[in-house]
């Protein structure tokens, strides 16, 4: 009788462990999916911000160039000088907003992750459960004082 009960309890425990493992795996997959969707939304916001900034820089650049051209008609070369650095700024913003700058940045990041992975390590390494728990308990003690 005892061996039958022990076998049944063992089977239930094994099924419970499998269920818990599947639940944890599903929870992890959901968390990864949520983080990826949040990353995509943040990247979309950055691209939209870059495009908005491009239009402001382009408008400013247009005004400066019109002023520089008006100055050239009056034989003043000083008005053209600001157009040179502004050309680079507007070009950079255009590349950032509408060209393949993000693809180049992503490729460079991939290269860094492969070739220079040591630059990505955290000081003192990855936090462990014990580190986090010690910090939590320390903060709890500080709050009591």
TrEMBL record:
<keyword id="KW-0812">Transmembrane</keyword>
<feature type="transmembrane region" description="Helical">
    <location>
        <begin position="53"/>
        <end position="71"/>
    </location>
</feature>
<protein>
    <submittedName>
        <fullName>Plasminogen receptor (KT)</fullName>
    </submittedName>
</protein>
<keyword id="KW-0675">Receptor</keyword>
<dbReference type="InterPro" id="IPR019319">
    <property type="entry name" value="Plg-R(KT)"/>
</dbReference>
<dbReference type="GO" id="GO:0005886">
    <property type="term" value="C:plasma membrane"/>
</dbReference>
<keyword id="KW-0472">Membrane</keyword>
<feature type="transmembrane region" description="Helical">
    <location>
        <begin position="77"/>
        <end position="94"/>
    </location>
</feature>
<dbReference type="Pfam" id="PF10166">
    <property type="entry name" value="DUF2368"/>
</dbReference>
<keyword id="KW-1133">Transmembrane helix</keyword>
